[in-house]
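Researcher: Next sequence.
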Amino acid sequence: MKFISWDINRLQELVSLWNSEIGMQFPIRKELFIQNSFEDKNILQAGSLIAVNDENQVIGFVVSKCWQENLDVRMNPEIGWIQVLLVKSSYRCKGIGSALLVKAEQALKERNIKTVHMGRDPWHYFPGIPKTSEKVINWFTQRNYVSGYIEYDLIHHYQNQPNRFNPSKYDVQFSLLTIEEKQEFLSFLQRCFPGRWEYESIHYFQRGGTGREFVIIKKDGEIIGFCRINDLKSPYIAQNVYWAPLVNEPLGGIGPLGIDPRERKNGYGLAIVEAGISYLRDRNIHSIVIDWTGLVTFYGKLGFKVWKEYQQLSKDLY
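Model: Next structure:
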């Protein structure tokens, strides 16, 4: 057994290993794996490795990341991520996972990373370890990873329910973003939600987004809120439709969303979610996922139920 560098020429083997081990719950597509684990500029090559056996077959891998993009957004340069660590079942308990983890952590330390998160990376798959993987969670806690919040993916199927959203109830205007409003929207995000949401929106436009994935609220002509909506026609595979192969119909996604702090407590948050759902249903999408949230009660008001659960895990390297 040996470790080799992260290599897209091993794509088919990596995807096959993923799907053989966790594909029943999290089916990966080549396009998604390339997008998240090869094209992301934040992949730390020194901390992303493939384990192969004596027959040169892939038996495990790890992908780690740290902030490396030259973008003027607020991303903490002392935070690192392990996007995924996976070992073939028949090769577990042989020290391969431990070796991959140690190599990833060492590479992150050499980049002066102080804290590493499991998942939660730019172009992430998971906001933590899936709760169904209790043995994996225990394995990481034995290696000094500390548990944080529980995060959830929620889902709702609207097929036989009427679309009741009534925008006239509110003193604001709901619309899909237009490309002409791009700069105004990015300025709004920079002012109210600097960091990850701004970062994701910059990439959205860089990849040819036209605005159809953002519902906005305007009040007196000014953007005061937004909600991202995704479907399989979006310019890249967005996080809340990652696991679309599990749903036997077109899948849509809601989130993230945010309201200008000056305009909160007016009911606009739930309203813009309803608006987003309405736009998706107008596209004949009736199964909708909200990913990476702790607001189960809030979204439960619209019928969303827990679909998947994740345990946040982090470790201080210094």
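Model: Residues 1 and 53 are 4 Å apart (CA to CA). The first helix runs from residue 11 to 22.
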